[in-house]
């Protein structure tokens, strides 16, 4: 099955028709599985600690990456060349003191034009297109520009810990620049990798020269890769067999909205949003496995001497599904993007406006479907409300242990409820259908959030107020 306006290869069209999946999804999965098979060969036959192989590692990763992009997106892959070219000229010609702002602006404008074009000509389409890889490239380009600015111009004393870690003291060569942006491990679905981490992977300095005493074994990606492949397989089964049983279009059905009891609507929204997350778990975990299989992602040894391969982890599935509060759940979701937003915007903008500007950048980065903004605005309300509720209640339910467990259980359940309530509009995309669903749910969580933010503090003193009274 070939979707309308899809520009990728049709080489797997017969396989697509036989298994009942659209060819864009088949192309993506096959390319990522091929990458997963190629990655260990790169790790084995082009070892990172051999300095003679660095150039070959760059070229090999680049060629495979461009091939995968062409299979998945056809001539649209030119966007992955045009945008880096514009930004490279910008990096080479502008004052280092302003390059981070200029590159971020160029990236946002370019990506916004792609989002608008897709929204006009392919409205509501879920077909995989070039906007996904460009979104990842925008993260890489803007982070690279910020790193160069920090390394060449910024006062070291004024840099935050993250800025110190990722500052770039020397402008990348052309081949470093191109391979960083287009390497096969991250070109299709990310994750976002910072330039300094990529260079450490290329030259092997991400691995220790000598094993620490607590290390149980030399670095090997086999165990983490097998674990992530297993997670990917489970997610694939859920996507293929269970997700089609709960179509999100049910939320657009007038009969469902008018005749279904409110508790059934709430349960259905929890189900479809939970199942939708499996698509992201699949793509991000598979991409992480590809990186690890090539030797990219090693972070060292923990206190028990066990290897850790979580540098590029984009998702903490258990943290999302069982987080005991809203903040912990959000932090566990799309961790690479959260770090990027913090690095390029939150820590650089004025403290007075950094939150607003960070949300604005996130909105532009995602696109312009109204449903996205309903999710962001609702999420902002829930974040502020959850913060206030926590200040009022958390410290009152920490002892004894059974009380704390009961409190965590209740907050975990409420967090799942809020997560589904705020994200279903991200799935259906449109404004009026989202508002119609909220209407049939009587805006119950919006009302509770407002009460928690403004009424609860009048009844139960927040933590800071309690401290003041006790002094």
From TrEMBL:
GO terms for cellular component: membrane. The keyword Transmembrane helix applies. It is a multi-pass membrane protein. It holds the Pfam family MBOAT. GO terms for biological process: lipid modification. The chain crosses the membrane at residues 25-46, 58-78, 98-117, 174-195, 229-246, 266-284, 363-384, 405-429, 441-460. It comes from the Eukaryota. Keywords: Acyltransferase, Membrane, Transferase, Transmembrane, Transmembrane helix. It is found in: Membrane. The keyword Acyltransferase applies. GO terms for molecular function: acyltransferase activity. This is Lysophospholipid acyltransferase 1. It comes from Aphis glycines.
